[in-house]
Each structure stands twice: as C-alpha cells, then as structure tokens.
TrEMBL record:
This is Mitochondrial inner membrane protein Mpv17. It comes from Papio anubis. InterPro entries: Mpv17_PMP22 (IPR007248). GO terms for molecular function: channel activity. It is a multi-pass membrane protein. Its main location: membrane. The chain crosses the membrane at residues 39-58. Belongs to the peroxisomal membrane protein PXMP2/4 family. It holds the Pfam family Mpv17_PMP22. Keywords: Membrane, Transmembrane, Transmembrane helix. The gene is MPV17. GO terms for cellular component: membrane; mitochondrion. It is found in: Membrane. One of its GO terms (biological process) is regulation of mitochondrial DNA metabolic process.
C-alpha cells in the first residue's frame, strides 16, 4: 500500500512546499520541515493507519479504537526520526532527489508502520 500511494503523494507535497517556500536557505529548510511535520505527517499517518485497518477487514468501530490507540505513539515515533531527516533533505538535497532520499529512510519507517498497523 505504501509504495503505490506514498511516492506520488510525497513527491507532490514537496513540489507544493517548494512553491510556497521557494528558497534553500537554512531558514527555508526549517520552515519546510515545520510545515511537513506539523501538517503533512499527522494527516498522512491519520489516513494510513485506518486505511490499513480497513483493508485488513477491521470494522469501523475496531478501526477507530485501533487508530486512537496507535496514532499518538506512531506520531511521537515519527518525530524522533523525520524532523532531522527532513531538515537535512530540504537543506542539502535538490528537489528532484528528495523523494529518493526519503524512500531510503522510509524502508525502515514503513517497516515500523507496517508492524504498528498490523498489531492487534
């Protein structure tokens, strides 16, 4: 599921960020990271976890309970990894390579998310 939706969604998000904040200074990278982690990451997780639950056949009630249980921990764990990755990514990496950098880190992140989403 991640590989089919994540690439186009994240790639499109980076293009939007570069339109809103076109620079590459340290301050610009910090602004992009704050928008990414304050807006995109919570929304993406909030969509990903219940989508996996639904695809695994959870009822709406069970899926909601699982989201309430797993979402806070997943978001906190996200904040241990992604702000530093994204700050470096937005500051050091040209736009057309950013998705590739994120996909390399995402191998580990998606393993965690898969474990989290499939845990009963």
């Amino acid at each position: 599921i991640c590989h089919f939706c994540e690439g186009p969604v994240v790639g499109g998000w980076y293009k939007v960020l570069d339109r809103f904040i076109p620079g590459t200074t340290k301050v610009d990278a910090l602004k992009k990271m704050m928008l990414d982690q304050g807006g995109f990451a919570p929304c993406f997780l909030g969509c990903f976890l219940p989508l996996v639950g639904a695809l695994n056949g959870l009822s709406a009630k069970d899926n909601w309970a699982k989201l309430q249980r797993d979402y806070p921990d997943a978001l906190i764990t996200n904040y241990y990894l992604w702000p530093a990755v994204q700050l470096a990514n937005f500051y050091l990496v040209p736009l057309h390579y950013r998705l590739a950098v994120v996909q390399c880190v995402a191998v580990i992140w998606n393993s965690y998310l898969s474990w989290k989403a499939h845990r009963l």
